[in-house]
Design goal:
Length: 222
């Protein structure tokens, strides 16, 4: 359950999310069984909504795991669209490929094994939607490597920005941004605070905080 809203809101979000895709259910079962940190269904549904609202055709993801968040976006980009999944772990990426094949979305997906910050160099874009879900401390590097490749009106969404297990809470982040606390160098908290300060000062992007799941920053290229 998200720490960012009440039990009732959480229940309603669950009711409103499409549960009719057996592949998504299988992926959720796997995540629960293995304790794998996917974005969760409410963030997945939000990403799909973003992709539909902007008629996204091209998506790039930094850190795809076994494909859960990418799978949520896949139906929204249509058969002519392309979603690039990146993952350092070969086994995770193989599982993502298998899930996409079972769901009938493999034809619109590219599976890239390796460091997303290196993979992105091989792509020109433009990307309508970019998802940052690799190491928190490297979100800013991810943003900088991809910002010029984002289409006008395109969005970069960064996940886990308000909560990160024991490592960070919204109160921690506020304290750092208000100057009341200095985070440990190299920590998630330091990385997210640095990211937030940077993207909110980028004149080409407009950034909003979305309190779903563990929190999202959505930065639109204006
Ligand atoms: C929090 S998990 C999220 C996976 C997926 N986005 C989801 O919601 O199910 C982050 C994943 O990113 C991968 N990862 C971490 N750093 C990476 C990098 N630099 N490039 C590619 N993948 C990375 C990890 O191996 C892990 O599987």
């Amino acid at each position: 359950m998200s720490m960012l809203h009440t039990v009732d809101v959480d229940g309603l979000l669950t009711l409103m999310n499409p549960a009719d895709d057996p592949i998504l259910e299988r992926m959720e079962d796997q995540a629960n069984r293995e304790g794998f940190p996917t974005v969760g269904h409410e963030v997945g549904a939000f990403f799909r909504l973003c992709a539909r609202l902007m008629d996204a055709e091209s998506v790039f993801e930094f850190g795809s795991g076994f494909g859960y968040s990418a799978y949520w976006m896949a139906p929204a980009i249509g058969p002519a669209g392309q979603i690039v999944l990146t993952e350092v772990d070969e086994d995770e990426l193989d599982q993502a490929r298998a899930y996409f094949e079972q769901g009938g979305y493999a034809d619109r997906a590219v599976f890239e094994r390796g460091d997303a910050l290196e993979v992105i160099d091989r792509y020109d874009g433009p990307f309508d939607l970019v998802h940052l879900d690799h190491e928190n401390e490297r979100y800013l590097d991810g943003f900088e490597t991809v910002r010029e490749k984002v289409s006008q009106g395109g969005v970069i969404v960064a996940d886990n920005v308000l909560h990160s297990g024991e490592a960070m809470s919204p109160a921690d982040l506020r304290a750092v941004l208000d100057g009341a606390r200095t985070p440990d160098e190299g920590s998630s908290l330091a990385g997210i605070a640095e990211y937030y300060t940077h993207v909110t000062n980028d004149p080409e992007f407009e950034t909003s905080v979305i309190p779903v799941g563990e929190g999202i920053f959505a930065s639109v290229r204006t």
